[in-house]
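Is this the right way to post structure tokens for a design question? Let me know if I should format differently. Anyway, here goes:
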């Protein structure tokens, strides 16, 4: 039987949070202009941010943290002209992401295999200053077609499935 990505009645791949990012975009973009001690993290270059400072200055993430504890947060960099191949995350069931790179030519795709050679896909077209609840357990990839791409991403203390977390974050979505 072939599975498909049903986008009705609910998108199983991602969901925007209703409140926009306030301070974190300017702060993190300023950081990316410096020489940071990037560390390899599942194929990305990663830089961990001070969680408590972020929670004190970013109301949306503070509200998320009250409903479901955040363990850590950081910046993920995808090099220019690179693709982060199709995968599901080993450890994360769901997360929250925020694209930091403005005017950027990249694609975040979710896919479901239709047959040996084709996938049905849906794209997460990031809107500026918008946090997205992200389902890490559906195959996804990133295709970066220009300069380095920066993404804010986090880990929760307790991993729970996307739909369960979506329900828990009711009022923020």
């Amino acid at each position: 039987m072939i599975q498909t990505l049903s986008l009705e009645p609910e998108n199983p791949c991602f969901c925007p949070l209703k409140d926009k990012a306030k301070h974190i975009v300017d702060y993190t973009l300023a950081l990316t202009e410096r020489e940071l001690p990037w560390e390899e993290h599942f194929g990305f270059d990663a830089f961990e941010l001070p969680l408590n400072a972020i929670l004190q200055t970013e109301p949306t993430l503070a509200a998320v943290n009250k409903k479901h504890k955040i363990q850590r947060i950081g910046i993920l960099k995808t090099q220019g002209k690179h693709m982060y191949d199709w995968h599901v995350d080993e450890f994360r069931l769901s997360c929250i992401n925020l694209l930091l790179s403005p005017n950027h030519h990249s694609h975040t795709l979710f896919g479901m295999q239709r047959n040996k050679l084709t996938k049905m896909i849906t794209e997460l077209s990031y809107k500026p200053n918008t946090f997205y609840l992200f389902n890490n357990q559906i195959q996804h990839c990133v295709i970066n077609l220009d300069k380095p791409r920066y993404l804010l991403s986090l880990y929760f203390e307790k991993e729970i499935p996307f739909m369960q977390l979506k329900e828990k974050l009711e009022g923020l979505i």
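Format looks fine. Someone answered above. Worth noting: The first helix runs from residue 24 to 32. The mean pLDDT is 92.
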